[in-house]
Design brief:
Length: 258
């Protein structure tokens, strides 16, 4: 994983600022690095559109056993992540005191398209975003008080650790950075995006035209782009209404206007 550098600055755009850096603090750096090197996040880094800094929280432990957790004061099952390694890890990576520092925790606000765009603006504005992967039963409340300014959950279920949630958040951000998605990645019309009116995407087909007796809808083979667009809009609206009525447009006219 490359360290932040200026090698890509100004390469294609005189007005571009330094590339944004996503910093992930974790007890499992290999797991996090592997994911960030793969697929679109990996390509984005190689193209210089984003940088990653993966920090092993254990490197900030101060005893010879590299201890980062301990039992809870007052008793109770489960280990608590100590404040000191977390706070010092954050202080070692953040460029600015007002950097956004996110703790992944089931008790945080639920991640969404809206929160993706908010954090993306923040990442571009400040040039960095810091994600702390929570673990065990939780982290010492004083670490939260001292360095955390947002807490995010990815849904109402409990995971072993914050690595997968942090990677979910990072992936959602990376694919929204300008220039990261190519046309072949179908940027811009994914489910939940503005162009879909916050609704779901339509169904898609590729070759061959018939598979195990199932055919591709005629309209898609017609070459009539107006009809194809209309069909896709209708299918997307039907899907949204039947699968996710909570996302559906109350007024079909809004969908037409788009
Ligand atoms: Cl952010 N952390 C953990 N441990 N579990 C979760 C989560 C986060 N979001 C949903 N489940």
């Amino acid at each position: 994983m490359s360290r932040p550098d200026d090698s890509s600055v100004g390469k294609s755009d005189m007005n571009s600022v330094a590339k944004p850096i996503i910093k992930i603090l974790t007890l499992f750096p290999d797991m996090v690095r592997t994911v960030l090197e793969t697929s679109i996040p990996g390509r984005a880094e190689r193209q210089g559109q984003v940088g990653y800094e993966v920090v092993d929280i254990r490197d900030f432990a101060v005893d010879k056993h590299r201890t980062v957790d301990d039992t809870a004061y007052g008793g109770g099952a489960g280990m608590i992540m100590m404040a000191q390694p977390i706070v010092e890890a954050v202080e070692s990576v953040r460029e600015s005191d007002d950097a956004t520092v996110i703790l992944t925790t089931p008790q945080g606000e639920t991640f969404s398209e809206a929160l993706t765009l908010e954090l993306l603006a923040d990442l571009q504005d400040k040039g960095e975003i810091i994600l702390i992967c929570g673990h065990y039963k939780g982290i010492d409340e004083r670490a939260r008080e001292l360095v955390v300014n947002r807490e995010v959950s990815i849904g109402d279920y409990v995971l072993t650790g914050g690595e997968l949630p942090a990677l979910v958040i990072a992936d959602a951000l990376i694919r929204r950075i300008d220039g990261v998605l190519h046309n072949q990645d179908s940027a811009g019309n994914d489910s939940f995006t503005e162009s879909r009116g916050g609704g779901l995407d339509c169904q898609w087909y590729t070759k061959p035209p018939e598979f195990r007796g199932l055919t591709v809808p005629d309209v898609l083979l017609s070459g009539h782009h107006g009809n194809i667009e209309k069909w896709r809009r209708e299918q997307a609206a039907d899907r949204t209404r039947s699968r996710r009525p909570d996302l559906a447009d109350p007024d079909p006219k809004d969908a037409e206007d788009r």
